[in-house]
Design goal:
Elements (H helix, E strand, L loop, with lengths): L6 H25 L6 H25 L9 H19 L1 E3 L2 E3 L1 H18 L3 H25 L4
Antiparallel strand pairs: 1-2
């Protein structure tokens, strides 16, 4: 059996990709000195990918049997809700302003990247990662230049 065609090796590669993509977003957050940085974003993306992979694989296994009703989309919706809960904990109201919204949104969208990797939408996951980085860097520069200096 060829090592690279082993389904478990392919899953390992998926998990590595998810961890790297989440880490890329985390690097930007780390650079901005946010509490949720490289490790947090990597772990969220990795966890979402793993849950999605497990759901898809479980569906493949149980899909042949009429006795078990299994829907992988339930796992995806649980990821969205669970990460939403974590994101809510990241937000804080301090000195008449809300802090942590961008970090919470970043964690939420990184979980979507992990989910995309988990269902083998690699190009979408990579593209979304670069979109996030664009939003976090380019739009910040535009905000600072046009909105905060007035």
């Amino acid at each position: 059996m060829d090592f690279f065609s082993n389904p478990q090796f392919q899953i390992i590669c998926q998990l590595l990709l998810a961890t790297i993509l989440g880490g890329l977003v985390g690097i930007e957050r780390e650079y901005q000195k946010r509490a949720a940085g490289i490790r947090t974003h990597s772990l969220v993306c990795l966890g979402a990918a793993l849950f999605t992979i497990v759901a898809v694989e479980a569906f493949k296994i149980s899909g042949d049997k009429n006795t078990i009703s299994f829907d992988p989309s339930r796992i995806v919706s649980a990821i969205v809700m669970g990460i939403g809960f974590i994101g809510a904990g990241l937000m804080i109201y301090r000195r008449s302003k809300v802090e942590g919204l961008t970090t919470a949104a970043g964690i939420w969208v990184v979980s979507a990247i992990g989910t995309a990797v988990g269902i083998k939408l690699y190009l979408i996951a990579v593209f979304t990662t670069f979109l996030i980085l664009g939003v976090l860097t380019i739009i910040r520069i535009l905000e600072e230049r046009f909105f905060w200096n007035k």
